[in-house]
Write a structure and sequence with these properties.
The protein is α/β, with parallel strands linked by helices. The protein has five helices and seven strands.
């Protein structure tokens, strides 16, 4: 019985002392320091145009987001990226977190000063670099008006059809509202995507 009490006393000391110190010190320091720094420390948000092109059967919003995530990862870009893509039920303005600071190309060129500047109908430079910084021309699927709202018309069955219908696209050589709100090509057209950091 005495041996059990001694063992219990030693374990308690270890848990309250060394282990608790580790939990309250190093681990807590990591959570409150490094992780919080990553979450709260962003000062710029990147936008790129995909290197790939495809018809409008993107697998819906989730499929388009996956394309952006994969291309960012392949280029070594850390962080979360979503497609600048809207359906009638899911506008960009409702599913993308608005940035409080500047949006930039991957080479650091300023695109817009913040979210409000991004959706005011004008941007500072065309969004024409891919995740690796390579110049890409051509149009991109957006389904998105210049203010971040959905284009309230056919959107290629919520971007799951590559055969029938039309959807809104943007022009990667534009700095006016046509950067996102340009023409409505057929769903079979091979276009890229814009990807925006969260």
């Amino acid at each position: 019985m005495t041996g059990q009490l001694a063992c219990s006393s030693t374990d308690t000391t270890t848990d309250v002392g060394t282990d608790a110190g580790t939990d309250a010190g190093a681990d807590a320091g990591t959570d409150a320091g490094t992780d919080a720094g990553i979450d709260a420390g962003m000062t710029e948000w990147r936008i790129f145009r995909t290197e790939s092109i495809q018809n409008a059967n993107l697998g819906g919003i989730a499929g388009a987001d996956a394309i952006c995530a994969a291309q960012a990862l392949a280029a070594g870009l850390e962080g979360e990226f979503k497609a600048w893509l809207s359906t009638i039920a899911s506008p960009v303005a409702g599913r993308v977190t608005p940035a409080s600071g500047p949006y930039i190309l991957v080479n650091g060129t300023l695109v817009a000063n913040d979210w409000d500047d991004l959706v005011d109908g004008l941007i500072l430079v065309p969004i024409n670099l891919d995740a690796s910084g390579v110049l890409r021309s051509g149009e991109v699927w957006t389904g998105t008006l210049a203010n971040g709202a959905s284009y309230l018309a056919d959107d290629c069955a919520e971007f799951t059809s590559g055969t029938t219908g039309v959807a809104l696209c943007g022009a990667t050589n534009s700095t006016t509202k046509t950067w996102t709100e340009n023409i409505t090509p057929a769903c079979s057209t091979q276009l890229g995507l814009y990807c925006i950091e969260q």
